[in-house]
Amino acid sequence: MSPPTGGTGRLDRSRYDLEFGEDFTGTEVDPRRWMTHYLPQWTTPERSAARFDLLPGVLRLRIDADQPAWRPDDGGLRVSNLQTGSFSGEVGSDRGTHRHRPDLRVATAVPTRRLYTPSSGLAEARLRATPDPTCMLAVWLVGLEEADPDQSGEICIAELYGSAVGPDGSTVRLGVKAHHDPRLRTDMADIALDLDATDWHSYAAAWDAGKTCFYVDDELVRVVPQGLAYPLVLMVDLFEFPAGADRDPAVYPKAAEVGPVRGYRPAPDR
């Protein structure tokens, strides 16, 4: 079944069944749904751990002044991330979820977790980005890579760079990334929209093996004639790309917010 759209290009949820729903209404992040570490196999636990607050119905992701870099070999990049699965080989192995660089090697072996790993369907998140020019808020689906390291593709539902969002309009980066999946080609685009992404907006992707449809506030904004048909991990994350080593504590914490997150499976009888 191809990802459906309505006659006006609006998202049609009627052909899907909800299988993953998160409203962030508890006092803790639910470990049955989320891991609170960013790709922990490629680094160490104190570096992969997310910083966040839980507000009523909102996950507030933070980058703090004392937060260590995610991986020293990647420079000063800092991340606070939640994800729905993990896989790695033994320490020293090059096998693991989202091996986005060929030189990555497992630093911390992690158990295989499949909390929510869809291979087709619809995923959406309500986001409120930060205008900080050093930050990016993102929601992605990336290959688990457990069965086959070539199953590494990515559906980039939205990347919201602080330098590209604001009251006069915002640019959303989205599309498909091949990484090392030989069946895919990277096809990304910057979509200029008449909205302020520092306010609440919803971002979604519906996909199957042949096509991926991207939506903002339920309106179709792009179709990529490629899809993925293997287990994917859902990730929501705040990145900081610092301009240099000096960090002014007065500008921290840097924060962005995540509202409801949903995942749907195709309904076989619709």
Automatic annotation (TrEMBL):
CDD domains to which the protein is assigned, alphabetical: Glyco_hydrolase_16
Region: Disordered, residue numbers: 72-99
The UniProt record lists the keyword Hydrolase: yes
Pfam families assigned: Glyco_hydro_16 (PF00722)
GO molecular function, one term: hydrolase activity, hydrolyzing O-glycosyl compounds
Key words of the record: Hydrolase
Hydrolase keyword on record: yes
Family annotation (SUPFAM superfamilies): Concanavalin A-like lectins/glucanases
GO BP: any one term: carbohydrate metabolic process
Annotated GH16 domain residues: 32-269
Signal peptide as annotated in the record: none
Protein name (database record): Glycosyl hydrolases family 16
Species in which this protein is naturally found: Geodermatophilus poikilotrophus
Record lineage: Bacteria, Bacillati, Actinomycetota, Actinomycetes, Geodermatophilales
